Amino acid sequence: MFSVLRDLGWFFRREKRRYSIGLILLIVVGVLELLPPRLLGNAIDEIVRGSITTGSLLKYIGAITVMMLIIYWITYVWMHKLFGGSNLVERLLRSRFMNHLMTMTPSFFEKNRTGDLMARATNDIRAVATTVGFGMLTLVDSTVYLSVVLLAMGFLVSWKLTLAAVLPLPLIAIAMIFYGKAIHDRYSLAQDAFGDMNDQVLESVSGIRVIRAYVQERLDEKRFADITEDVYRKNMAVARVDAFFEPTIRFCVGLSYIIALTYGIYLVFRNQITLGDLVSFNMYLGMIVWPMFAIGELINIMQRGGASLERIDETTNTRPDVADVASPVAVAQPTRIDFKDVTFRYPTSTIDNLSGVSFSLSQGQTLGVVGRTGSGKSTLLKQLLHEYPTGKGDIRIADVPIESIALDKLHSWMGYVPQEQILFSKSVRENIQFGYDKASDERIMQAITAAAFQNDLGTLSDGLDTLVGERGVSLSGGQKQRVSISRAFIANPEILILDDALSAVDARTEARIIDNIREERAGKTTLISTHRLSAVEHADLILVLDNGHIIERGTHQELLEMNGWYREQFDRQQVENNLSGE
């Protein structure tokens, strides 16, 4: 049950000063709270004996008042320390969790759903934070504070009465063990269901246009109702066990009160304790009600925190498929790119997605990659991003194996525009500046002009400051592509990768962008995959892929003379362009 505290030992060691102060003051408050009931019992005994005076009464009132003020101030300090630690660990865990996600490769996100990751980053981290805040309070109160109160009851009043009153306590311990295991198992299932619900919401919101286009609103509502019903049932299963905690403790506390009152009156009549002792004892008995409840809360919190920490650790303990090299080789510039007999297969694939691919590209040259859908164009380009473990063969940059280059250094050379454009829910300006956050307006406009987007600014409500909405929902497909290209241009990368990034623009706009690429990127390397052959006519080398194999290679003119797939596709596209008037 307490394994969650052991696993969070790194945090308690880091914040040992905070927790030492907080826990010591919490214990001090527990001891100080024992004094007012004892003072009240003494006052009652003086009243019964008739020896009470105005002076002594004022002395009792003053002592209790001062004690309450001291307790108030110390309570403020320990609460600030303990619950401040709760907020701190939440921030640390969330930052660590997010930083870990940033190191993960695509295969990780293929196996883990976004909704479940969100549930772990929110609900699960909050449950762990509760463990190091309220959980530490219940731990101290259910052990140290309970022990202090029991000792006070025994030494200051009567050991006989104390032993009789605590007879029901073992029942609480037995019940808590049973309830704790049930809470752990059911809470894990409930959190998994919450992750499923998150994922469903994300899918429905991002796919709302498709849902409406196919008139699937009612079906999606039913699907969501089913999944929320599942979340409800699993959370109710937790609540049913949770609901047993308080009645069980109240029942045991009630038994303690009955025993204490019955046996206490007997001891008063036998003159073994005074009436003031009995009043003090009952006040102490009232004080152990919370520690008894704290036992239940402690079991509940620790089990929830343990289950949540297991889910968080499951994610953060996952190692990336591509780890950074321990001793990277220093490479100043990517002067050359070499693929030597490269064969690659995705982790989820049963066949080779690239087979025996070889080519060389010098700095400043342009590579075109064409082929039918699914031929391996994107797979080839992604090899330079080193997102997956390299397969067979050798990929070298500046004659250094790609595995020996630091990932940050490798990615700093790259400007990548994928097939599916990812825009953030910010303004056009901020999306473009993502490539270079210190870019001036002049540089932004240069990048926009290079991407042939300048004419579209006038159609946007606030120009560069227009919010593009989530995933760029307020922009057309062609506009999103050109904003993404502007973002890559503004970074001025050594290697620009355009992965079918011109598919949503017309032929004239494409021609302008290609001309700008040739002019703006003189001396820098560019790789372009495309279905429209006009985008790679200028390339120094064009590769034609089919099922991961290179079936043709050469310049545009050389490929036309081969009269193969490239020539056939080029002639077809020329006819289509003539018919469409482009």
Keywords:
582 residues, elongated, 10 strands, 64% helix, alpha/beta, ABC-type oligopeptide transporter activity, 2 domains, ABC_transporter-like_CS, 6-stranded mixed sheet, single chain, Rossmann fold, 4-stranded antiparallel sheet, ABC transporter transmembrane region fold, ATP-binding
Describe the structure.
- There is one protein chain.
- It is built from 23 helices and ten strands.
- With 582 residues, the protein is of the alpha/beta class.
- It folds into two domains: 3-316, ABC transporter transmembrane region fold (Up-down Bundle), CATH 1.20.1560; 331-413 and 527-582, 3-Layer(aba) Sandwich (Rossmann fold).
- The strands form two sheets. The protein has a six-stranded mixed beta sheet with strand order 6-7-8-3-9-10.
- Strand 4 (392-397) and strand 5 form a beta hairpin.
- Helix 3 packs parallel to helix 8 (134-157), helix 4 runs antiparallel to helix 13 and helix 8 (134-157) packs antiparallel against helix 13 (275-287).
- The model has no long low-confidence stretch (mean pLDDT 85).
What would a concise description of this structure say?
Keywords: ATP-binding, Cell membrane, Membrane, Nucleotide-binding, Transmembrane, Transmembrane helix, Transport. The protein has 23 helices and 10 strands. It is of the alpha/beta class.
CA-CA gap between termini: 71 Å
Mean pLDDT over all positions: 85
Main sheet: which strands, in order across? Answer: 6-7-8-3-9-10
Q: Which outline best applies?
A: elongated
Q: What would CATH call the class of the largest domain? A: Mainly Alpha
What is the CATH superfamily of the largest domain? Answer: ABC transporter type 1, transmembrane domain
Number of strands: 10
Secondary structural class: alpha/beta
Poorly predicted ranges (pLDDT <50, ≥5 residues)? none
CATH architecture of the largest domain: Up-down Bundle
Rg: 36 Å
Can you tell me the CATH topology of the largest domain? ABC transporter transmembrane region fold
- What proportion of the residues is helical, as a percent range? 55-70%
Tally of separate helices = 23
The fraction of residues assigned to DSSP E strands is 5-15%
Tally of domains: 2
Major sheet, described briefly?
A: 6 strands, mixed
